[in-house]
From TrEMBL:
Binding of Mg(2+), residues: 218, 242, 246
Name under which the protein is recorded: 3-isopropylmalate dehydrogenase
Family annotation (Gene3D superfamilies): Isopropylmalate Dehydrogenase
Cofactor, how bound (note): Binds 1 Mg(2+) or Mn(2+) ion per subunit.
Location of this chain's protein in the cell: Cytoplasm
GO BP term, pick one: L-leucine biosynthetic process
PANTHER family: 3-ISOPROPYLMALATE DEHYDROGENASE
Example of a GO MF term: 3-isopropylmalate dehydrogenase activity
Gene: leuB
Reported function: Catalyzes the oxidation of 3-carboxy-2-hydroxy-4-methylpentanoate (3-isopropylmalate) to 3-carboxy-4-methyl-2-oxopentanoate. The product decarboxylates to 4-methyl-2 oxopentanoate.
Main subcellular localisation: cytoplasm
Cofactors (names): Mn(2+); Mg(2+)
Organism, as annotated: Fulvimonas soli
Catalysis: reaction(s): (2R,3S)-3-isopropylmalate + NAD(+) = 4-methyl-2-oxopentanoate + CO2 + NADH
Lineage, broadest ranks: Bacteria, Pseudomonadati, Pseudomonadota, Gammaproteobacteria, Lysobacterales
Family to which the UniProt record says this protein belongs: Belongs to the isocitrate and isopropylmalate dehydrogenases family. LeuB type 1 subfamily.
Amino acid sequence: MKARIVTLPGDGVGPEVTAAAVAVLEAVAGHYGHDFAFAEHPIGGCAIDATGEPLPAATLEACQRADAVLLGAVGGPKWSDPNAPVRPEQGLLALRAGLGVYANLRPLAVHPALAALSPLKTEKLRGVDVLFVRELTGGAYFGAKTRGADAATDECKYTVAEIERVARRAFELARGRRRHVTSVDKANVLETSRLWRSTIARVAADYPDVGLEHQLVDSMAMLLLTQPSRYDVVVTENLFGDILTDEAAALAGSLGLLPSASLGEGSHGLYEPIHGSAPDIAGQGVANPVGAILSAALLLRHSLGLEAEAQAVEAAVAQVLEHGPRSRDLGGNAGTAAVLDAVRIALEDHAATSHAFFS
Ligand code: NAD
Ligand code: IPM
Ligand code: MN
């Protein structure tokens, strides 16, 4: 198949991990006979430096025209002055809004070979397989903001329609899994959370085959550590989802491992690792590319409908996590390039034995 993929490497380790993910997609194209055309555009701090804007209009237009978008990370100390008039992260938020990608899927799986890297006891990690569905285009991230000399505000607003569409997505996804949804809110304090809870409960009535439980976000932060294998699909609002998924990454062994897919209506999607620009290791060639590579697998699955290819990439990554080489965050000493090479070799083996290669 032919596909146009826009790449937005961004800042810090973004370009390093995005290059690895593109190399894997190119390998997939070669092995399975696809034609992927890549076009790179600026976003974030590097876009501010080049154009004054974190999301140049040409970047957004290219993303809107593409079949899928692969992003690295934005931000870094150079642009982090709290009084700066413009910030890299604004570019990412504008992109998510501009693409209408309201559902951010963040799968958490714990590879058995990495269990020792988690701060949790190994027996707690057995069977952990959670799909976080984070609402991505509403809440405090997008409400009105004010800043005065003595006070500042961030309005947190949700509409019923915004909650309903992400809820439906979560229930649909649960049907392809273990049929259980945990909705996380702060309904004991926040009005938006009370609307969230009642809307989720109403949507749940359309999915009688899927179980629903509500959980308050503070206790959920604790339960994720004490009973992580209890959860299947976890749906929550934007800010809670941001925080809980970084916490979840610690269960997997490193923030560098987790991918994400941001979806709206249709197959158009934005794919990015959940980690940031990692300024402490940027430019050293040591970033773990796995989160970005697994994001490319999600791109194959959700935007291009290439399930066999997505599974081949995931199997290749699993093989490398098991046998190495491992990057520094996983206790190894391999650089980004060595991990990428190992994934490419594993992928080649996989493709050579799969039917698609010969057909
Ligand atoms: P971070 O995710 O960049 O880094 C947190 C820690 O995890 C660091 O020690 C880092 O070295 C490590 N880490 C992250 N990715 C890694 C990888 N692939 N391999 C190995 N180690 C990895 O979070 P931060 O330091 O709080 O934020 C830095 C900047 O990134 C900020 O400007 C923030 O706004 C931005 N950020 C961007 C995104 C995004 O673009 N989607 C996401 C999160 C943070
Ligand atoms: C993420 C990041 C972003 C978020 C920032 C950089 C805007 O932390 O993708 O998780 O908070 O959504
Ligand atoms: Mn985050």
